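Per reviewer request, we include the raw input and output of the structure prediction for the construct analysed in the revised manuscript.
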Amino acid sequence: MTLTQLQYVVTIADTKSMNKAASLLYVSQPALSGAIKELEEELATQIFIRSNKGIILTTEGEEFLRYARQMVELGNLVEERFVSKSIAKKKFSVSMQHYSFAVEAFIELAKGFEVGEYELAVHETKTHEVIDNVKNYRSELGVIYIDDFNEKAILKILDENELEFVPLYDCGISVFLSKNHPLAGRDKIAMEELADYPVLSFEQGDKNSFYFAEEVMSTLSYKQIIKADDRATMLNLMTGLNGYTLCSGIICQDLNGGIYTSVPLDTEDTMTIGYIKRKNIPLSMLGKQYIEILKQYK
């Protein structure tokens, strides 16, 4: 098994096409197919299934791909640092549910580097995409929550994908709304007081399971529900329609603006904010720094 073969596997998986991969790798398709066949024979494992719809990874192939990506990335770093004699840029990527504090923590991390020193990426996205990004090495970390309702389902999904959840802090449930909302001045808000206002929820696309909802208490029956795709739209709906969402209560005025607030919900229910990572793989230096910044928000 060679690093070149691993690069072939990664490129084929990304393009889902032997022809496209061969073109990107500047090799002939027969040569590429032969290299993959030799690798599969050496491993006694079928990595790809060739079909009319293109190239599909087998279950064993998906597991192999995760390790192949890591090895290719390490190989690139070694070549960049010692063969090209250049100083490797610091690289870090994080995915998250729609949490302004997690974005702000990313900003604080980026502020610590000079221009040209790093290559960073942040993905504020749907829950299943957070999991997929960490699983497929597009992100080192993913920031999500679990509670009594979704814990078993989420932890099962993570375990099946060789991922783990690391708790950061437990939070009570709060109502996130505009400061102009009629209930904004309360010390606490009861669920029945919210009945006549629209609850706002982030759209989860094809994976629109209750377990993937970014808002706690997603299984309750609400008279009015409005779904949105991004945080900016969600904030506009809060001000324009007196909408609200249920959250951890950790908000960032600098990013959201000073016209929003959170009020504790009158409930004993809690949620746990944490991060997901690949099992048995230590965090990078930047990953550790990001987590330390996140911890400051409790």
